[in-house]
Amino acid sequence: MKVSDLVKESYENLDSKDIELFSYITQNKDDFVEKNLKDFSKNTKFSTSSIVNLAKKLGLDGYSELKYLIKWEDGKIVDFDENEIEFTYNDILISMNMIKNRNLDFLFENLDKAENIYVIYSGFIQRNLAQELKRNFLNIGKIIIIIDARRDIALINENIKEKDIIFALSFSGDNKLVINFLNNIKKKVFVVSITKLSNNKLSKISDVNLNFISHEVYRYEKNTSISPVSQYYVIIDFLVLKYINYKSKKNTS
Asked: Could you give the C-alpha distances from 18 to 49, 88, 170, 186, 219, in angstroms and in order?
């Protein structure tokens, strides 16, 4: 994953100095990659501890991992391929077919048994998705409690029950805040993760993983990338529609 994507996921956890530091690093990539932590810090107004703290806020182990990702990004510059429009269309189409054809009865059976439904997130995009999931379920009489993975672990441990369900949102499926949050829950609960289709950690610790297809689209000029997220909303919409269909069939049988 690109550092810019990590910044988007952790944006609410960053302060103005973190954003300023990230901006400085992106404008001085060669300097950042070539120098060690102490030497890079010496010629800037940023301390070594502030650089390490930024890396950890992004879910990385420290400076070395941040440096590696920045260096890796420099080798990813490519021209924009006009076929990317078709590729992205296919990603969305395949994602729709995957969720449309999937049997979710096991998930819905546990959803009906759940006393409480939680959704945890970390990052701006995931927060919006959590709100959308809450709104959709409210329309069918299900109340969802939204939990911020950065700060609400004590609250959830006080109230969670073994029959409860947690929806965990992470684009990559490797967000350390979300994974650590789930690992720190004291009771065994039913976990449903919604992630990109990949061999990710979150899918492995979930009872059900709802996945979608997405890939990074590169812009040549700035070496930045777009990872389309409309598939995320597709999963949520189909999840609710299939649950309504499940309940309708159950009531008429």
From this structure: 12, 32, 22, 32, 24
